[in-house]
Amino acid sequence: EPEVTQTPSHQVTQMGQEVILRCVPISNHLYFYWYRQILGQKVEFLVSFYNNEISEKSEIFDDQFSVERPDGSNFTLKIRSTKLEDSAMYFCASSVDRGYGYTFGSGTRLTVV
Amino acid sequence: KQEVTQIPAALSVPEGENLVLNCSFTDSAIYNLQWFRQDPGKGLTSLLLIQSSQREQTSGRLNASLDKSSGRSTLYIAASQPGDSATYLCAVFSRDDKIIFGKGTRLHILP
Lengths: 113, 111
Description:
Structural class of chain B: mainly beta
Radius of gyration of chain B: 13 Å
Largest interface: A-B, 25 and 25 residues
Shape of chain A: globular
Low-confidence stretches of chain A: none
Mean pLDDT of chain B: 94
Order of helices and strands of chain A: EEEEEEEEEEE
Radius of gyration of chain A: 13 Å
Structural class of chain A: mainly beta
Number of strands of chain A: 11
Order of helices and strands of chain B: EEEEEEEEEEE
Low-confidence stretches of chain B: none
Oligomer: heterodimer
Number of strands of chain B: 11
Number of helices of chain A: 0
Distance between the termini of chain B: 41 Å
């Protein structure tokens, strides 16, 4: 069964450093998403991406965050200057179309120290 | 603003029992509703997807129902097993292109 692949599975970074989280969505999917889950809390929407542009973003997704689909297969989330409160599990998801089911990756656990 | 609530927050039942997990949402203008399973420290595994035009979906021992007008969904698990122990998340895809998750129900099946 097709999978959404996320790398790395775990990343530790120092506060203030830039991180890039990588995702390879399912190949025929057109809609892409990033979510995060702070330990013990809800899964929260960050951003949705379609047709090479952001279609929706949450209040969490401020100027420190950016997304890119550089080569037609990868979908990346960049955090420019990490803060302690960015420590969370970050999930990538993709969907063939709006209103269809979403396939989530297994997540990247980001720890900011 | 869409809000998703799951009740109960935690549930422990003996192995073999049938159980029901509840999910409610405030805005009935949804594309679909999806139930996920999350094991501790792991990703999200899709269990069932119900389109807004559907009333229920079944997969093995799982059955999910959707009543859009009342803003409710239930996940029914038949003949529970210890391997069913996990957190179950309800997620609603709203028309503003966001998936809104509930906080989940932590299920523990007692052997």
